[in-house]
Amino acid sequence: MVGLLKIAFVILLFLVLIKKKWDLGLVLFLATILTGLLFGLNLKIFAKNILKSLIANETLNLLSIILLVLYLGNFLQSRGNFKRMVDALKNIVRDPRLILAIPSAFIGLLPMMAGAMMGAPIVEEAGKRWNLTSAWKTFFNYWFRHIWEYSWPLYVNLILAAAIVKIPIKKISFVQFPFTVLAVAAGLVVLFKHVPYLPKEEENSEKRYVHDTFRVFFSIWPILLTIILIFIFRVPMLLSLGIASFLTQIFSRMKIRERWKIIQESISLKIVLLVASLMVFKRILEVSGALDSVVRVIRPEGISAYILLFAAPFFVGLLTGVNQAFVAIAFPLLVPIMGTDRPDMVLVMFAYVSGFVGILLSPAHLCLVLTADYFKAELRDVYKILIWPVSVVFGGALLALVVFRIL
């Protein structure tokens, strides 16, 4: 019980410092030091394990993957690819209501801070035909921007989760893909139920339709290439991202100064600190005996374990609003419950969905706050709409847990 209280104190420190807007990487590093002190880890062993975790292939591989993802995002954004994609989508979709969903969903394929803001102007323009309220426009833009984070392998929180529980990113993406489908379905039900059908203002010729379809796919070709290499040709993720990134440099006509600027903007010291601190924190939790103390108090099976699998990631996500935080803080502590050698994918899925549900509902979530501010919407009105599809997604995860593990 004493060990569990020490862990609770570390988590409390996490939440207090993050609420004060401290950098997550720095908070993780301070929590690592505190964990070592609370569990009486020898200074020599502490330093040795920090060094080992920093130079481990797992850490270097993870860091390289995330930096390449950031590079692709900066490249596509700086080259105007998303703008061209959205312009083409306006001419393709046959049901105008889908313009309220598809642009935000496409933009969501590329992880970026406050990415929902890119789709907000399109939703604003499209929403004029139905005279939608600010809350409804906020919901459509916000919800469809986040449908991919359960399974899209370019998201940092998914990459971190796979690294912490030591499973291939393809496996976790495959297992959690049904929740992307469920999120899409829930969002479309709300969309089609609330927004009446209106015919397109003008019809495209078949030639123009084909041309615009080609423009959509060409605008995000590095992302599509990466996914094809990973899932069809089974190329390792790091190599797939490296190939796509290299080809962007080969095929784009840019000056040396422009190329170098994109690369510089992609090397985020905050992300480097976050990844390094996470892997160090994970290792210190293991070698200090902190994880063992959790197992001794909370059995890795039964109702108490299931409650912790929900509560830890959900409340971290709800309180912080930081996508990576619920994975970085909660998942290392949940590893003994999810399994160390062969993680239970149902438990991993339930913990991940629980955490992301907390993120979606968090008033500290940057995408939600900025989108609501853009549309001048009251958060309480947005929550009235948001609570139903969020409940559907979480209900799906809870049902899977009950059917496959509890019954």
The gyration radius over C-alpha positions equals 22 Å
Helix share bin? over 70%
* Annotation, overall tally of beta strands: 0
Structural class, please? mainly alpha
Oligomer: single chain
SSE order, one letter for each helix or strand: HHHHHHHHHHHHHHHHHHHHH
> How much of the polypeptide forms β-strand, as a percent range?
under 5%
Low-confidence stretches: none
Largest sheet: none
What is the overall number of helices?
21
Distance between the termini: 29 Å
Average pLDDT confidence is 85
Anisotropy-based shape: globular
Textual characterization of the structure:
This protein is mainly α. The chain is built from 21 helices and no strands. Helix 4 runs antiparallel to helix 15. It starts with a helix and ends with a helix. 45% of the residues are buried.
List the helices and strands and how they pair.
Layout: H1 2-19, H2 24-38, H3 43-55, H4 57-78, H5 81-92, H6 102-107, H7 116-127, H8 134-145, H9 156-165, H10 169-194, H11 206-219, H12 221-231, H13 237-251, H14 256-266, H15 269-288, H16 290-297, H17 303-320, H18 323-338, H19 345-361, H20 366-375, H21 379-406
Helix pairs in contact: 1-2, 1-16, 2-15, 3-15, 4-13, 4-14, 4-15, 5-11, 7-8, 7-20, 8-20, 8-21, 9-18, 10-19, 10-21, 12-13, 15-18, 16-18, 17-18, 17-19, 18-19, 19-21
